[in-house]
Amino acid sequence: MSKINLSAASRIGCIRSNNEDMVLAYDRFIRSEIYQTTITSDILDRFIVAVADGMGGHNAGEVASELVMSNLKFFIGDLPLGMSSDEIEKTMRDWLNSIHQTVNGRGRSNHDMLQMGTTLVGLLYYGKRYFWMNCGDSRLYRLRNGELEQLTTDHSLNNVNGEKKHSNILTNCIGAGGETAYFDFMEITDDFLAGDTYLLCSDGLNDMVSDDIIKEQLLNGATANDLCEEAINAGGYDNVSACVLRIEK
């Protein structure tokens, strides 16, 4: 049995006038609020936690992230039972292609929302198996035995070129007028261990707070909101969202 202590937070930050991030924490949408709960996986057949970082002018980013999250929650809840791991991966990739076109279509239908888009990083539990997925530069970290590891790869020019000046330019996301989007998708069932801590976050956290400080905070029992406070205290130049999952021993 896996008992997971979950905390989630999404904060507007110090500069932005609106919050374009959104967190999906099991069955709850989080924007400009904090939330905590406990999940016992053995009594559930599925759940999803995810962070989306929207982009686009005229508040279009918040429309994109909300559209993707609401669609994702419905889609996961509607998955049939008994799918194999390969079937889950194919189904999620098909969903990504569909929601990518939906977001682009919504953008084309309203000039103020043209080229709106969003990142998405998620941790999925289905049929006693765990998977993670990523599209964009929101991140999934794992803290294990005192060491913090970034499991996802940023889909950004910064990651390709190693030049910080390109850090906000994405090479992959949902929507934004791109022809295609893709997922990094991984099953981690055999590597999902008691005592681990997982962190999903928007770049509003890791752009403002170093990995060393994130590690120190998590080792000291920080919640998602504690991490968001660190980013805000460091300047809070962007919206900041996080979800922390602690797997009980």
Walk me through the structure.
The protein is an alpha+beta fold and 249 residues long. The chain has a single domain (17-195), classed as PPM-type phosphatase domain (Phosphatase 2c, domain 1), CATH 3.60.40.10. The chain is built from six helices and 14 strands. Strands 2, 3, 5, 6, 7, 8, 11 and 12 form an eight-stranded antiparallel beta sheet that branches. A six-stranded antiparallel beta sheet has the order 4-1-14-13-9-10. A hairpin with a 2-residue loop joins strand 7 (120-126) and strand 8. The longest helix is centred in the middle third of the chain and has 25 residues, at 85-109.
SSE layout and pairings?
Blueprint: E1 3-11, E2 21-25, E3 28-30, E4 33-40, E5 46-55, H1 60-77, H2 85-109, E6 117-118, E7 120-126, E8 129-135, E9 139-144, E10 147-150, H3 157-161, E11 174-175, E12 184-187, E13 197-201, H4 203-206, H5 211-219, H6 224-233, E14 240-247
Antiparallel strand pairs: 1-4, 1-14, 2-3, 2-5, 5-6, 5-7, 6-11, 7-8, 8-12, 9-10, 9-13, 13-14
Helix pairs in contact: 1-2
